[in-house]
Here is the input.
Amino acid sequence: MRQGCDILLVDRRLRSSGGAQKYLVELTKALELDGLKVHALINEGDELQAYCKSLQDAGAQLHRFPLGDKARRESEQAIAEKLLELRPAGVHVNGSSNALDAVLEPVLGGSRGGFFKTFTIHQSLLNESLYYDTRLKGKIPYSYRRRTIRSARRYMGLYDAFISVSHVNMGFSVESLGIDESVVRYIPNGVDIGVYSPSGRGAGEVVFGSCSTLSPYKNHELLIRAFAKSGVSAYSRLRIAGDGQEAGMLRSVVQELGLQERVEFAGHQANVPDFLRSIDVFCMSSDSEGMPYSQLEAMSTGLPSIVTDVGDLAVVVRDGVDGYVVAPGDLDGYARSMAMLCESSVLRRNMGEGARRRAIENYSSQCFISKTQHFFAQMVSGRRRASAL
Here is the structure.
């Protein structure tokens, strides 16, 4: 173990909540449990106070840096100076953003600090390209996509190894960006199966639910319209947890469909386990995903799911076993799945039990911790061997 800093984590976010933020907190805990000294370098911003506190509570020593179009040189200088000050064994970057990538490329590319450089792939190294492939295919100029891929290839060439939380996006990165598969480790997210445990809800009207930010790519409108079309809204309810830019539009859709008494907007949930224990079926209707924590949390809680076939959702949820998988944007298919699960308590119970077993076997916190610790132990020991030569 080093006297100063073993791992410097670098991240750029706009808000405190989200899967990538939760991931970095869990990563910090795993590294601290393994005896590594962790520092975190996070961009400035008033909306990040809760995120920064979570990182500190997990054991990271926190540093901030400016980030913005007008502060690019200042950002580069701040990060370079922090690298010289801390002299970490390794630098780990938590996902891709245009603003952060532009700052890190000259800093990491010009550094002679002797540290290893690793990177977590969340959704896609080309979020735009992945989204275009699934929703806007044929509408984006090929020349733009080619330039974007060429730029990403150059930037990703700076890193020694990668963690991918998504099996699907790992394949995309290897095939489209030419990353050597041997340096990419698939480590899916993990959840605390003790905290996210079943409640044994009693009989009563069936409650469908979702829990995520109300963002365009989450496509909650599909979920609401499928609920209306399913024919079960008269004797079931839909609870939508979360907040975001789509809230006003979604409330208008509910009013248009006359579902004000059957659809509840539950807002931000401070206690997600309790929210999940208040519903019977978990729903994700996204147009784009990676490996969402909310899906793993729902499965650990023993809930059957209805999900769209994007990202790793079809990898995690076995169609017809743990829930139903429908094509992105398939209103009829989503409505049929809601109707089938609403009408059979036996089906809901069997699928929920299967989901819980799958979460325990493959997506527990302990699985994530052990695989993550092994990855970084190899990187640290490799760096030490290189330094000794």
Notes: The chain has two domains: 7-190+365-388, 206-362. The domain at 7-190+365-388 is CATH 3.40.50.2000 (Rossmann fold).
